[in-house]
Amino acid sequence: MALRIHFENVVQRYRVIRERPDSLREAFTKIFRRNSNTHDFEALSGISFDVHDGEVLGLIGRNGSGKSTALKLIAGVFEPTSGKVEVSGKVAPMIELGAGFHIDLTGRENIVINGLMLGLSRKEIMAREQAIIDFAGLGEFIDSPVKQYSSGMFMRLAFSIATETDPDILLIDEILAVGDAEFQEKCDARIQDFRDREKTIVFVSHSPILVRRICDRVILLDHGKILADGGPEQVLEQYDSLVHQPA
Amino acid sequence: MWNLFQEIRKNRELIWALALKELRVRYKRSALGFIWALLNPLMMMVILTIVFSTITRIAVDYYPVFLISALLPWTFFSQTLSYSVESIVINAELLKKIRVAKSVFPLAALIANVINFMLSLVPLLLILAVLRFPFHWTWIYLPVPLLGLFLFTAGCAFFFAAANVFFRDVSHILQIILTAWFYLSPVLYSPDFLSPKYKLLFRFNPMMYILNGFRMAIYYGQLPTMQNIAASLLLGTVTFVAGYWVFRRLERSFVFYV
């Protein structure tokens, strides 16, 4: 089993700004006043884990526990403040709905741009275009501007593009909750197919039902630390008691 | 710099697709579509010609040709900057979700405007034909000011796109800078009109050399001096390298500020 994702003592710190920072006014006030309106927030404080081929890993935890940050680090959206993140293979990220669609362009045009961003060549996209459209089941909407899509259609197209690009690692953030029952089944089948082909999936969710159904390993994050790492049943139980304990 | 070439090579299809997207969105839902790319400079030229050659009586033969030979490159410059300054900020949602080379966004804005610029050469040829203005052999020299223009514009585009991520004021300030810069550059007038007192000041304006190169070749039918050629290419290259250097140094933190 090849190592796909390697996290070693990963720390991610954000500068959190209490007011909007992005103006010159603030830059000037910074000079005169000691910069008091920012503080550092540690989203991940030194986590380590490995993910191998064929693993379907669930990341759970309360809001602000660092799940999405971990996912974005795997996606390569940013680099860690300290520590090491190593990812090998092609990554297809589905972080929040409709990863980077241009709302004025049609579904078909978005397939091309999204595919190019995921690292495919135009030729490869053209070869897969029909399969993407079929799986998303958008019918004639594929030639309408994406801004006319419902959130379910958005998600279906995003999922369809991401999975048809044949990635080694699939990152899914909450997204699956949006589709109807029929599409849920198609997604499940596709995820099963990924698992059968020994691909890696990292799945972020708040839903114990989804996590239990999809994942075979779960990591529980809390305040940027790993609380538990193991089989779904055992870790979900711990999550349950964490959520229900008085803060 | 080597890094940039590799990024362009790797992402050339993406940059091209984004540039076409930019144009498609720009002209979408307008009845005339791409014709606006031709009509716009034509209308600008008509208005400015009426104002400056008829009303204020600037004594220049073939003023429309004189004007448009510098107006077209200027419009390219200012439009590219107006588009690229927002290019990173506008794609914020994308940068937070997909790993993608940041340079593709200002580059796509640049390419889109290069296409637009090429289209706007059609009205130029049209005007030459209508006015029966001679077509000078010096046109073959145009690639030199073109290269200077593209390099200079790209450098500025990288710089402003990066700066705007950290201070959103930059896009507002840019509009003021561009307006002032327009009047301080020899577009409406020739540098010869300036009082010698201020001539020195104009020497620091890279756009002067570039615009002058265009006007020399198209309007005067002369080759610019070696000094002029050297100045426009040198300033273009230096700006390009410096602008990209700033962009490159800052691009890692874009995602935290957009």
Number of strands of chain A: 9
Helix content, binned percent of chain A: 25-40%
Compressed to H and E, one letter per element, the order of chain B equals HHHHHHHHHHHHH
What's the count of strands of chain B?
0
Q: SSE order of chain A, as H and E? A: EHEEHEEHHHEHEHEEH
The major pleated sheet of chain A works out as:
6 strands, mixed
Mean pLDDT of chain B: 90
Distance between the termini of chain B: 25 Å
Question: Which percent range fits the helix content of chain B?
Answer: over 70%
Largest sheet of chain B: none
Shape of chain B: globular
**What class would the helix/strand composition of chain A place it in?**
alpha/beta
Question: What is the secondary structure topology, with strand pairs?
Answer:
The complex is a heterodimer of chains A (247) and B (258).
Chain A lengths: L2 E15 L6 H9 L5 E15 L3 E6 L5 H9 L6 E6 L3 E4 L12 H11 L4 H15 L14 H14 L4 E5 L7 H16 L3 E5 L3 H7 L2 E6 L2 E6 L1 H13 L3
Chain B lengths: L1 H9 L1 H16 L7 H21 L7 H22 L2 H4 L1 H4 L8 H27 L12 H24 L2 H16 L11 H7 L3 H15 L5 H25 L3 H4 L1
Helix pairs in contact in B: 2-7, 3-4, 3-7, 4-7, 4-8, 4-9, 4-11, 7-8, 8-11, 8-12, 11-12
Describe, in plain words, how this protein is organized in 3D.
The complex is a heterodimer of chains A (247) and B (258). Chain A has 247 residues and is of the alpha/beta class. Chain A has a single domain, classed as Rossmann fold. Chain A contains eight helices and nine strands. In chain A, helix 4 packs across helix 5. Chain A is globular, with a radius of gyration of 20 Å. Chain B contains 13 helices and no strands. Chain B has helices spanning 2-10, 12-27, 35-55, 63-84, 87-90, 92-95, 104-130, 143-166, 169-184, 196-202, 206-220, 226-250, 254-257. In chain B, helix 7 (104-130) packs across helix 8. The longest helix of chain B has 27 residues, at 104-130. The two termini of chain B are 25 Å apart. Classes of the chains: A alpha/beta (247), B mainly alpha (258). The A-B interface holds A 14-15, 21-25, 27, 72, 75-79, 91, 93, 95-96, 99-100, 102, 104-105, 109, 112-113, 116-118, 121-122 and B 11, 13-14, 17-18, 21, 24-25, 28, 91, 93-100, 165-169, 252, 255-257.
